[in-house]
Amino acid sequence: MSPAGQRFSVIPGEWAVVRRAAGERSPAWLDEGPGAFVSITHTAEELSIVCPAAGVPESERAERGWALLKLHGPFPFDQVGVLASVAAPLAAAGVSLFALSTFDTDYLLVKTVDLGAARRALAAEGHLEVATDSK
How many other CB atoms are found less than 10 A from the CB of residue 36? Predict the structure, then answer.
């Protein structure tokens, strides 16, 4: 599949991006159970967590109010332009994004208030929104 015409879906819920200090472990409040979408990145500078906003205590340093879009892969590692094919129309529409990649696919967070604009921009570029349970 070429980068144009990607299938995507919106994963229900509100999402948060949490920042913790470098060297910290995943917090006890984090639900990493089966089926839960959680992304944990440890770097020398920080621990960054993307997770459902509902479970994040108010005491945490977090950016809330994100919607989660899944690009339906898998994508070969040598496929060029997948993220660019969705990032460019979002940028043109003034929609900021936070991108995550896994072994098989890519995910995008956009602010919930921008979700409608994101959907319209992606559709106008030929990307197809599908049901969340579609592979």
Answer: 11
From the CB of residue 59, how many other CB atoms can be counted at a distance below 10 Å?
7
How many whole angstroms separate alpha carbon 22 and alpha carbon 6? 35
Report pTM. 0.88
**Residue 1: helix, strand or coil by DSSP?**
coil
Q: Are the beta carbons of 100 and 39 closer than 8 angstroms?
A: yes
Structure tokens at 4: 């144009």
- The SS3 of residue 89 is helix
Report angle CA 47, 48, 50 to the nearest 5 degrees: 145
> Which domains occur in the chain, in start order?
7-129 (3.30.2130.10)
Mean pLDDT of the chain, nearest integer? 90
